[in-house]
Each structure stands twice: as C-alpha cells, then as structure tokens.
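=== RUN LOG ===
request id: a7f3
mode: sequence -> structure
chains: 1
length: 453
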Amino acid sequence: MSRVVRVAGGQGFWGDALDAPRRQVEGGPIDYLVLDYLAEVTMSVLQKQRARDSALGYARDFVTVMDEIFPAVIERGVRVVANAGGVNPRGCALAVRAAAERHRLGRSVQIGVVTGDDLMPRLDECLAAGHAFANMDTGEPLTTIRDRVLSANAYLGAAPIVEALARGANVVITGRTTDTALPIGPLRHEFGWATDAYDVLSGGLVAGHVIECGAQSTGGNCLYDWRDIPDLADIGYPIVDCSADGSFVVTKHPGTGGRVSLPTVAEQLVYEMGDPRAYVTPDVIADFTTIRLEDAGPDRVRVWGTAGRAPSDQLKVSIAYHAGYKAVGTLLYTWPDAYEKAQAADRVLRARLDRLGLQFDRVLTEFVGVSAAHGPLAGPPAPDIAEVQLRVGVRGPREADVERFTREVAPLVLNGPPSVTGYGGARPKAQEIVAFWPALVDARVVRPVVNLL
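=== RESULT ===
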C-alpha cells in the first residue's frame, strides 16, 4: 500500500473556531496540523498592534491554541505549521515557547521561525533600486502613497517551511506565506518532491487550497443543499490524505458534523480561484481545469490529475496603507412605510451634513432588508416591508469631519421620521481606514530566513 501523509486544516482565518485545532488533533490520527491565520487586512492590523507594543504583531489566538494542544501533539507526534507569526514571527515563537515551558515539554518542542517576508525595513532601498511596486489593479507606482504605507509583506512559498522541518522543527511559525504553502511544505518534506516536479506540486497546491478555508470544504458556507448539511454545530474540519503522486482524498474525522461530498469540495475549489488555468503561487502554477474529482465513499472525495508548470519569477506583495477615516451609523425603521421612512431619514441626514460643510470622499447609504446585498438586482421592494435598517457610512481624509458625522445620527431618533428603533449603546466611532495595495516584486529581492528558536 502506498504511503499516505495525513494533513489536517484547523483554521481558515484569525477568528475561526478556537476548538477546531484541538478537535483535529484529538479526533483521530493526523501527521500535520496546518493553521492559516492571515488575510490581507490582517497584516495591517497586526502592524498597528506592533506599533503600539513591539512584543505584539502576531495572531495571539495561536498561543492559546498551542497551550491547549501541546501535550497531545507531542504525545501523538503531530507537527504544526502556522502562519500565525504575522509581522512578528519571533515574538509569536517566544510566546509559544513559554506555553511549552508551562507544560514542561523541554526539548521535545523544536520551533522553527520563518522570516524575510517583511519588506518594510527595505522598502525605500527597493524603490531606489527601481522596483516600482506598481498597483496590480491601477498601475500606479507605490511612490504616490509611500508616506502612508503601514506594512509590506511578500508572499513566501513552501521552501523555508521545508527547511525548518528538515532541521527538526515540530512547530513551524511563519509570517506572510501563501495559504497553500502551509501544506505544500510538509508534503515536499515527506515525499522529497523536487522543486520542478510541477504536477505533483500542483496536487499539493490543490490539497492546500481545499483545506485553507476551514470548514468550507466540509459543508460550511456551502450553497448546494445547505439545508441538508448535518450537524453544523459540531462540524468537522477537513483532512487530506495525500500520496506521493500528488493525488489525495478529502475527508474529516468520523462522528463529526458537516459533510465531505463532490459539491462541498467543488465549491471550495472555485473559491478565490481567479483564472482557472493559472492558479499562481511561488511554488507552482496549477491548472485547475485539469482537476479530477470522484466520490470515494461516505465523507471521502478523491482528487487527482492536476497539471502544473513553473512559477513566475515574481512574488506578490501585500501592502497596506492609511487611506483616511470612516464611520458607520444605523437606525431601524418599522412598519408602516418602513422603506419610505428610511429614505426620508437618509435625505435629512445628508442635508444636515451638507449644511455643516463636512468633507467626505464618499457617503454610502444602504437599506438593509431592501437592496443592501444585491443592489438593483434585488428588484423593486415589497410594498409593505415590516422593517428596514438604514445604514449610512462615510469616509474622508479628515478625522474631525468623520467624527462630527457620528454625532449626527442619533438626533434622527427624535427629529427625523417616526417609528425608529435599534439605536442603542454608544454613538458610532471614527476608524482609520487601512487600504490594500497589491503589487509584484522580483523574487530575488525577497530573502527568506529560517531559524530554530
């Protein structure tokens, strides 16, 4: 029987179910637990945290998780790979080391730390060398917003994870990597895949893509027959049983809720896919049109056949920058004439903002319950809607103007249209806007570093 490496996914984002990693470790045999904490906006949030406290800048939930599962992962020989390091992988590793010491695990814990993705210290050096970091959507050079940049992190591939595992790490903590690098690293380490074995690497990429979003591939957030997905309250998280030829079986632990089926796996495959012929990562470019799926039994789907080709010589860089301030206020208008009242309140609020001479880049009104999600596609509103939430957001360059807007919502309760409710607690708060600037950079600029703590 061919060898199988079992990789379990335990987090889809920072804020996912805290008990999922423990349930993956304790629910049955696995070889690796991979935990994905980072979205684009997460990096800028972590950068702001580190600016306030140099010891922070990582996903602190990960430390809580490791504190809970350390005895089990050591006893069962499970190796953990996570991008929880954010903008401070070493700080995260030190906190995890402290958790291991609380359990008196000593040298049984070897923590590998991957750095080098953070380009902020070298950003001006790179710009001076001719790297424009042009916005992938607009083509603008980064110099137009350089003074407002908060963070700049390149997406690393699996190579430094492979190195950390080869050096004996049983916990690997990275900063910004691609989501799929987290499982590709263990699979390359276990199977000895060459860096130019593009077809098998693309199989590992697809395996990582299937499990990167938590329970989405096991029935969570599933459109197909969602009413029939069993026991979402106890949903099992995904596991991939991977073979050396790049094929794998998607499954979950027995006795858990949710479902693994052709529809649940297929829906996850097309999630954030982009061009199906070219799913681009630093490790390999996969052709999703070549993927083959088959039902392999209850809660088992086999995936194979993915073709791959050489990766680009560029890496994506996630840049976050300050883009002004925002605030959002809401009021709930009730029957009769709920929609008409909400529309009138919006007109009154806008007239008052104009009278005050406040400057905003945009004022956005949504009528939740009528057309907020689908806009004009929602069609004409029902003639007698029971309730409508008026949601007004503003954004602009001046914090003082946004702050003044927050004081203009509450007065509508008494001096606007009737039958308003749903306004409680403190008034809205002005918040800094952190915007996303996607760019590319020559891969030779990025220098990954691996250390054992």
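=== NOTES ===
Residues 338-356 form the longest helix (19 residues).
The chain has a mean pLDDT of 95.
=== END ===
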